[in-house]
Amino acid sequence: MIKYNGEHLLIGQIGMFLTLLAFTAALLAAFANFKAANANELEEKPWRRLARISFLTNAVSVIGLFVVLYLIIYNHYFEYKYAHSHSKRSLDMQYLLSCFWEGQEGSFMLWAFWNAILGAVLIKWSRKWEYPVMSVMSILQLFLASFLLGIYFFDIRIGTNPFVLMRNEFPDAPIFQDADYLTKYLTDGNGLNILLQNYWMVIHPPVLFLGFASAAVPYAFAVAGLWKRDHAGWVRAAMPWALFSAGILGLGIMMGGAWAYESLTFGGYWAWDPVENASMVPWLLLVAGIHTMLIFQSTGHSLKSSYLFIALGYLLVLYSTFLTRTGVLGDTSVHSFTGEGNSLYWHLLLMQFVFIALPLALYWRDRKNVPVVVKEESMNSREFWMFVGSLLLLISAVYIIVLTSLPFINKLIGTSWAIGDEVEYVYNRIMVLVTIVLALLTAMTQYFKYKDTTRKYLWSKLLVPTVISAVLGALVSIFGDINYDKFGLGYLVAIHVALWASIYTVVANAFYLGSVLKWKMKAAGSSITHFGFGLMLVGILISASKKELISQNLTGILVKGLRDNKGKEDNPLENMTLIYNTPIPMGKYMVTYLGDSSEPKNNKVYFKINFVETDTVTNEVKDQFTITPNAFMIKSETGSNLSSNPGAKHYLTSDVFVYITSWMSPENAKKDTSEFKYTRVSQGDTVFYSNGYVLVEDLVRANKNDNKDLPLVDSAWLSKLNVVSSQGVGFKSTPGYFVQKGFGFSKADTVMEQSLVLNLEKRGKDDVYLGVKESASVMRYITLKAFRFPLINLLWLGTVIMVIGFMISMYFRLKSKLYAI
Amino acid sequence: MKKTHVLGLVFIAASIAALLTLMDDISTYDSVESARRKEGKFVHLIAKLDTTKPVIYDPLKDPNYLSFVAVDSLGSSTAVVYRNAKPTDFEKSQRVVMKGSMKGEVFECKEIILKCPSKYTDEKVAKL
């Protein structure tokens, strides 16, 4: 046994202890809450005590786990695998939190953390619902804690513990033969994936996970409703939570979009990537559930649908976790997943099974007593159209999740299907139709009253907003210059119609606030939410269909025969190469690569790209700005690679968005292979190269005796050259040739601006040759892509307003006596 | 029949229609040989970069032209042209999923997904 030096074992042992404590406490809490829920008044009290104490113990342990892991990362204890794999000494303070969410264990911990907080709030405020709801929350905590156990049960490892030591994970590595391995070898960690080194990545996972975690609360209430056979009560109790969850989850998803927009290079905020889809689908169902719950509260209809949507919404949170964490998605995502192997696969399947079985069994038990309204909804009622909308949300959720699950389906039935070449279009063409109907419903449905609405009332209220949005929509269609015809006329028309409908949503909901609600905040939550949602749709439709490629490469020729699947000529040439200090036209801009500066601490390079827009007639500069995208240089044996971070210039009405796709870095330059061309020269000679000529102004022989400036060599040939480019610009250059102790060697000189390397060589007795090399590598250049996203700010603004709307709705429901539980 | 039932049927019909339109867009994962057999058809080719052959990418000449040789797990190889910038960490990738179609002898690739080794590997520790 080796006694290792410098390890900090205690903190890991505390962590391990807290993991076990969290697990045991959750088990106890689940049991005690179950007992308390089924107990009569006499037996209830001791169970309640036990239930609360054990859940709070779990909550405190989870918070403790969080602190312990943070301390390990913060103090750079690289003997722990988690710190070694996910952090690094040079990492900025603010990104230490991102290290947390990068790993599987950290994100499960974050999830458990929010659950613990939510559970504590529920203990305080859920009154009669406490035991059944807390039973569900405790089972959830039990599962989450089990993901962190890392204990072997026979041969299967259950969960992965974040406090494992490097030397226990890799016992055979030779470095662990050395008692001082920490100070000698494991002195630094592997660092954080650079894509995660972005401030959105610090804040968006906590928000997103709060969304995921809080979706459990309405689910728990639904289960409690079935369990306690209180089919009406749970809806009331769950409503504020469902609103909270939909708001936060929506915010988290869009913050994820903002992260993708700012740090990923697929050029957008949404790419229908499995990870994005997986977070969006539960949100769609949650929103559908909120609407059916509202229908139920006002009319008694749609109770079963409410159970279905709320339960399904949470199951999809779990299913999404399953898809994105077990590696079943494999090759389809830009996100790379660390498959934790089979054990997590079955572990998550088991969890999903439990959470499906629970509501199903309880529903089956009480299926005869679930109230159903026999009378049909009227077509003139609000509930009818709300239900149509909810169904539509369900359908779109199913469509998205089925497509996202293709790799999993392949795995199950042994096929090898994949979505074809236009992944985004496959989603968008359905979603644009969904948007049309959904936006129309969102615009009009509020003007209907529950049960029945007279036509006269409807028209008197709807006429003005309808006319206004029709005019606005027409103006946008005519002057908006929306002509995205890549997928044909039908799709373009659908985009226009969807845009009209979305404008209608915005206008109609604004009017509803004024004309029907008279600006009373108490009932305004839904209109504000819908208004924000409408703005989002408008922002999405415009920024996506008018997204403009600025760096369209017209220098290249259209690639012959390259056609897209619709048979159209396809021009995928999106990259432009910029040579240092050489302006190149790009769209309406002259773009210049002004240079780069590096931050050696973390191998980050900033590129200065200058955009100038001049008036074509007067030649006056209309607009001028500099964008500084950056990139990390990743060094490896095969040369250095760059991982790019976009830069953007934000205007109120549009964003110009740039990222570097390739850079001739100094290291790569060494591998240059083009050769010198030698010409024999004497003073006054001229040598031509592709872009000009080199004039030999002076060529002198010097030796130690007559030149005291040459102390290190015995003799030398020195030259003074004037390089004149075809533009008439002259550059000085002074290559030389030296002899020392009988050996000759050249001292080359470069003319960066002309990408020339000049060299002097002596052959024979007194013949001097000038070598000229035209090299790609002396030239400083970058390759980039640039886009313009118009009106993307509408999307962000709409998101904020929508979330505020959700919170207003939640706030007034919490205050209202109707919602007292 | 109740209105809600009609509604349900309409939605089911709409979903089936939506899924049917998908059939056109479904492609498959293929090897080099099977992609050759389906020349012109859009496929997902799973292979890896043949590091013994040169990777051609010269942004000064054409920033939108990358060409290399890919070899699949069955040992067949094909030249690949990707008319875009060279992806980050391209040479380091263990596996590439290329979306595109065979055009004659060349695989015209529209999108590349790289599977890079996790930056954290056991061998790395073992080597230390």
What do these coordinates show?
The complex is a heterodimer of chains A (821) and B (128). Chain A is of the alpha+beta class. Chain A folds into 5 domains: 197 residues, Four Helix Bundle (Hemerythrin (Met), subunit A) (Up-down Bundle); 176 residues; 147 residues, no CATH class; 99 residues, no CATH class; 98 residues, no CATH class. In chain A, 50% of the residues lie in helices and 18% in strands. Chain A has 22 helices and 24 strands. In chain A, strands 6, 7, 8, 9, 10 and 11 form a 6-stranded antiparallel sheet that branches. In chain A, strands 15, 16, 17, 18, 19 and 20 form a 6-stranded antiparallel sheet that branches. Chain A is flat, with a radius of gyration of 33 Å. About 2% of the residues of chain A have low confidence. With 128 residues, chain B is an alpha+beta fold. Chain B has a single domain, classed as OB fold (Dihydrolipoamide Acetyltransferase, E2P) (Beta Barrel), CATH 2.40.50. Helix content of chain B is 25%, strand content 35%. Chain B is built from 3 helices and 7 strands, in the order H-E-H-E-E-E-E-E-E-H. A 5-stranded mixed barrel of chain B has the order 2-4-5-7-6. The longest helix of chain B is centred in the first third of the chain and has 20 residues. The C terminus of chain B is likely disordered. The chains are: A alpha+beta (821), B alpha+beta (128). At the A-B interface, helix 15, strand 3, helix 17, strand 5 and strand 11 of A face helix 1, strand 1, strand 6, strand 7 and helix 3 of B. Strand 3 of chain A pairs antiparallel with strand 1 of chain B, so a sheet runs across the interface.
